Amino acid sequence: MPEPAHSFMLTIHVNGVERQVQVDARTTLLDALRDRLHLTGTKKGCALGQCGACTVLLEDRRVVSCLMLAVMAEGKQVTTIEGLARGEELHPVQAAFVEHDAFQCGYCTPGQIMSAVGAIKEGRARSDDEIREQMSGNLCRCGAYTNIVAAVRDAAAQGG
Amino acid sequence: MQPFSYAPVADAAAAALRARAGASFIAGGTDMLQLLQENVLQPDELADLNGLPLAGITEEADGALRIGALTKLQEAADHPLLRERHPVVAEALDATASPMVRHMATVGGNLLQRTRCLYFRDVSTPCNKRQPGSGCSALEGENRHNAILGGSEHCIAVQPSDLPVALVAVDAEVLARNTDGAERWIPVGGFHRLPGDTPEIETALKPGDLILAIRIPAHAARWRSHYVKVRDRASFAWALCSAAVALRLDEQGRVAEVRIAAGGVATKPWRLPRVEQELLGHRLDRDRVRLSAVWASEGAVTRTGNAYKAPMLQHTVERALIELGGLA
Ligand SMILES: Cc1cc2nc3c(=O)[nH]c(=O)nc-3n(C[C@H](O)[C@H](O)[C@H](O)COP(=O)(O)OP(=O)(O)OC[C@H]3O[C@@H](n4cnc5c(N)ncnc54)[C@H](O)[C@@H]3O)c2cc1C
Ligand code: SF4
Ligand code: FES
Ligand code: FES
User: Where does the record locate the signal sequence feature (chain A) (predicted)?
Assistant: First the structure.
């Protein structure tokens, strides 16, 4: 077993690319993505798990990256908002958010989209009620909720 | 966050070794990270339990369900046998946190979630639980979320987890392993402690004890059960009040066995024996349910901000029984 250490050379697979980065034991996955790997699409809101702005997929499951130590993602697959589009072609959920005007300031949007992608992958976006419940961990200060539900419904209908 | 060292551990013996050297455990990290960010906890070392083979749900030979301590809340909530046999547990998990948190958080960690008392999580204020002897800011302060049952003059903090409330209603037990390797079963109802004059001691665990599993006995599968959670918004919030009910009716439709526990209102998952007693032997009709539920807040001590919880508790228990009995 490795001895306890304060600093680590971390290997993670971000958006399909293997990345290595030196992190302190205290570094959250969110800070590693933003400050070390310069993937600033993932946002920091509360840093306490309560707003969902930092949502990413870890091994295809939605997580809040602010409540995870980066070292605990060693060897794992992470998908961020930057990893959704194929070249110039938006991911269906991204396209649905544009189509439905599902944002105002846009700060919560990467987290909303990652959460929606996760919910659709999990097969949990089958009705408006279910979408509302499944998206309840993603807060929107601008109150774009109605359009967010419409976008997720549309994207889910197209198979996400 | 203060600096700490980190290492994964591969088995229970290695976890015990690190704990003896002063390490704290981390599992899903969802409460630990909040407490680290707020400097409420300042461990020297974290031992990551995720390498231990303690995830997953299995059925034992006698029909009991064994839930490994590292099972994620979402995985437990989705388990077909758990959903079918113990709806109260599945419903409590469905109503816990957000999907993201449920994908990270473990059942073992959920039993050990620390209180949401504002002062406990704000290091600039006195709090006996965080800093023994410093005083309790909640007694005369902002106590809307604090306990009306089980408190003491030293602490009125609510144990905020939903899962253990449901587990009390199904007679579940916790398997713990101490640093010498000895294992013991602790009923969930006896797992959390009353604050008394040592609110910093919260459970029956000793330092370094590892939770290995939770076990729901086979007999609980004979009970119908249900969980009702009342919160400030429709979803994604800790309970202001909750009720877990499990019961069996005899052939005449009379209550033959019943367990009721309340959450959000007490310093530990709060069994309601007087309400149970009032129901035993009676048919579940609206009058009997209302007359019984009145006893839910027996012994409550309320303060300026949380007096609303006494009637809310009665009504939550009443609603849980009405919905379970199909009396709505
Ligand atoms: C935004 C948000 C909303 C939430 N809402 C709710 C809610 O509505 N209802 C609810 O019940 N909970 C809620 N929670 C709390 C969440 O369920 C808990 O934080 C979680 O269950 C803790 O589990 P974990 O694995 O993440 O524990 P960690 O944070 O890793 O650990 C918590 C504690 O348990 C100890 N520990 C963990 N596993 C073991 C083990 N196997 N043996 C011994 N010690 C162990 C750790 O040392 C630590 O002290 C919410 C959390 C967040 C962030
Ligand atoms: S109620 Fe308990 S946790 Fe809250 S301030 Fe008082 S001592 Fe601290
Ligand atoms: S920044 Fe992670 S949930 Fe708010
Ligand atoms: S669009 Fe502004 S916070 Fe959601």
Answer: none
What domains sit in chain B, N to C, each tagged with a CATH number? Answer: 224-324 (3.30.390.50)
CA A73 / ligand 1 centre spacing (Å): 18
Q: How many cross-chain Cβ pairs, A to B, lie less than 8 Å apart?
A: 105
The CATH number of the structural domain formed by A92-157 is 1.10.150.120
State how far the alpha carbon of B249 is from the alpha carbons of A13, B63, B275, in Å: 54, 21, 16
Q: Which residue in chain A has the smallest CA separation from B23?
A: A4
Confidence of residue A159 (pLDDT cuts 50, 70, 90): confident
Q: Counting Cβ atoms within 10 Å, is residue B152 exposed (0-12), middle (13-18) or buried (19+)? A: middle
Atom of ligand 3 nearest to the CA of B100: 3
Q: Do A137 and B18 touch (CB under 8 A)?
A: no
3.10.450.350, 3.90.79.10, 1.10.472.10, 3.10.20.30: CATH of A7-83: 3.10.20.30
Tell whether ligand 3 has an atom less than 6 A from the beta carbon of residue A110: no
Is there a contact between B104 and A28 if contact means CB atoms under 8 Å apart? no
Best residue among B35, B128, B159 to mutate for probing ligand 2's pocket (most ligand atoms within 8 Å of CB) is B128
For residues B117 and B158, the answer to whether their CB atoms sit within 8 Å is: yes
- Confidence band for A18, pLDDT divided at 50, 70 and 90: very high
Total-model pTM = 0.98
